[in-house]
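thought: fold this chain, then report.
action: predict
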Amino acid sequence: MQELNKLTKQVLKYSFQVHTELEPGLLESSYKECLFYELNKNGIVTEKETALPFIYQEVKAVESLADIHTAQVLTYLKLSGCKIGLLLNFHSTHLKNGIKRLIL
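observation:
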């Protein structure tokens, strides 16, 4: 679990970096591409929109996080076998207010 916590902190670090650089208001695809670039550039091998049964991962840029977004991430975790998920809303003025960490 300690290794997953370390990875989570790194992902959040680069998420904050992308949010600070781009600021809110862009399309989800902009944040997704920049976060993907930063993670891989810094040695965190990632995949984007990995095919899962029936659904796929998404980067969210919405006015506010809703229960359905939490449900989606929990479903992604179950289907992928992952233990921790981060729900990041890049549309938030301050990214720290748009973060939800989910653990299975």
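thought: worth noting. The CA atoms of residues 68 and 77 lie 14 Å apart.
final: tokens above.
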